[in-house]
Write a structure and sequence with these properties.
This protein has about 350 residues and is α/β, with parallel strands linked by helices. It has helices spanning about 5-25, 35-45, 65-75, 95-100, 120-130, 150-165, 185, 200-210, 215-220, 225-235, 240-250, 260-265, 270-290, 305-315, 320-335, 340-355; strands spanning about 50-55, 110, 140-145, 170-175, 190-195. Strand 2, helix 5 (about 120-130) and strand 3 form a beta-alpha-beta unit.
Amino acid sequence: MSTETIEPIRGQLGTELARSAATRDPFRGIIGHERVRESLLKAVGSGRIHHALLFAGRAGIGKRLLAVRFAQLLMCEESQPGAGEERVVACLECRHCRRIQADAHPDILRVEPDGQGIKIAQVRELQKKLTYKPFEARFRVVYIDHADAFWIAAANAILKTLEEPVERTIFVLITDQTHKLLPTIISRCQMVRFAPFDAETVRVFLLDRGVEAAVAANVANLAGGSLERALELAEGEMLARQVELLDVLDRLDPTDPDTILEPAGTFSADKEELFTVILMIQAYFRDLSLVRAESSLERLGFKERAPRMAERARGLTLLGLERAMNAISEVTEALKGNVNARLATEHLLFELALVLNEPRA
């Protein structure tokens, strides 16, 4: 056979092998979280899987997506848990993979808040289902979404279940508020920490979804490492409200109640939107800190306001900026509870007004 004949065959073979390798990549289609992926693959490949995993990290960074893929690695018809990492796959085509993806698999159980939280009746119902063996797959996976939302009686009940592992059953608890979980529940789980995405990853993610380059660059610095929040910012009305928000911050005056009360009422009308507004406020003060420290303007979320921010930053102290960031963090955590959103927003804007108008010694 001539060289001319062999080379095309080699090229075709190389392409097929590359395609086969990509098809067998157990985490294809999932962005980032390499350490988490390595940890899950190692556990499934070795067969030494902790009976309860706690997926912890801020909202919108892919915890639920990886929880679904983890279940597929365990249940896929082509996967061989315990036979080595190279034999762990998620084909995404077999009946188990497709039904898991569609949230319609009988061996996937889900517990999530019913109203204000996860109640004892929900845990009792789960415990009843756990008395049966898995129906179809080799494993059963229990997702507990918003695991920080257990009522105290329900938390104590699920703790008993976690203390007595159920055969062929893996719990995946998902939370973005680990501090609200009982320490005893945390101690029964293997912690899997999810880090926020860096701004460049968020920017590329948005570009791949057709977001304009200027918008993607801006949003990437405002999204707090959350792809979900980035999409909300890019597709929603919040970008159009940036100018309004910045004008509000420029006008804040602790001696003029109207500069605080009026915007507080507007921002707190929708609690979900309020979290986005606070995230943008946090980005604003982060930018002020960067300008104050004479860092590169490329890192700013509000590049178009750089000259104005430089002027404002010169009048601020590092201690004042720290107080502002602490106030933002405290109000953010408080709003995750049952506090009055308007009063919390008024308090935050008043604290920020004090910082922004504090005479510099």
